């Protein structure tokens, strides 16, 4: 009783096994036709993201609001630049996060806009941890 391809394409939840993702590595999966970046953040990336003064951010949001409690090492964001919808590149730019080469928007390791024309942070899709090593998106 698995959903057919049309149902999956329309937005059925997907499950992702996190076990093979090494610390410091990103993977890209697709949900509802959108690229989803899943980042296994390093301790350094987490500390940097948590220590940013919210007043310095164009779209202030604490790192804790962008990750699940107890799973700070995992960042899950929709990989679509909030400026004009381009696909940013992971682990690029000045903030060890995401860089959109189209117009220069730079996001930090929490997916928050730090520099460039993008008006907002990368969106966080609805997701939940099923186990410590498996998530469900959608």
Q: Report the biggest beta sheet as strand number plus sense, adding barrel if it closes.
A: 4 strands, antiparallel
Instruction: Provide the CATH top-level class.
Output: Mainly Beta
CATH topology category name: Rieske Iron-sulfur Protein
How many DSSP helices? Answer: 2
End-to-end span in angstroms? 19 Å
Overall number of structural domains: 1
Q: Kindly state the mean pLDDT as a whole number?
A: 94
Structural shape: globular
Brief descriptors of the model:
single chain, mainly beta, Rieske Iron-sulfur Protein, 2 helices
Task: List the SSEs and their pairings.
Elements: H1 5-10, E1 14-17, E2 26-31, E3 34-40, H2 43-51, E4 74-78, E5 89-92, E6 97-100, E7 105-107, E8 113-115, E9 127-131, E10 134-137
Antiparallel strand pairs: 1-10, 2-3, 3-4, 5-6, 6-7, 7-8, 9-10
Describe this structure in words.
By secondary structure, the protein is mainly beta. It has a single domain, classed as Rieske Iron-sulfur Protein. The chain is 11% helix and 33% strand. The chain contains two helices and ten strands, in the order αβββαβββββββ. The strands form three sheets. The protein has a four-stranded antiparallel beta sheet with strand order 5-6-7-8, with no helix packed on it. A hairpin with a 2-residue loop joins β2 and β3. It is globular and about 50 Å long.
Give me a quick take on this structure.
The chain is mostly beta strands. The protein has a single domain, classed as Rieske [2Fe-2S] iron-sulphur domain (Rieske Iron-sulfur Protein, 3-layer Sandwich), CATH 2.102.10.10. The protein is built from two helices and ten strands, in the order αβββαβββββββ.
């Amino acid at each position: 009783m698995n959903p057919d391809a049309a149902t999956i394409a329309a937005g059925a939840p997907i499950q992702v096994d996190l076990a093979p993702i090494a610390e410091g590595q990103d993977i890209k999966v697709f949900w509802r036709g959108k690229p989803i970046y899943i980042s296994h953040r390093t301790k350094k990336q987490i500390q940097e993201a948590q220590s940013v003064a919210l007043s310095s951010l164009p779209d202030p949001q604490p790192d804790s609001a962008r990750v699940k409690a107890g799973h700070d090492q995992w960042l899950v964001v929709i990989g679509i630049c909030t400026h004009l919808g381009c696909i940013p590149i992971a682990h690029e730019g000045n903030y060890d996060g995401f860089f959109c080469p189209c117009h220069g928007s730079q996001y930090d390791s929490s997916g928050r806009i730090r520099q460039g024309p993008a008006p907002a942070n990368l969106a966080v899709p609805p997701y939940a941890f099923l186990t410590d090593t498996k998530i469900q998106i959608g």
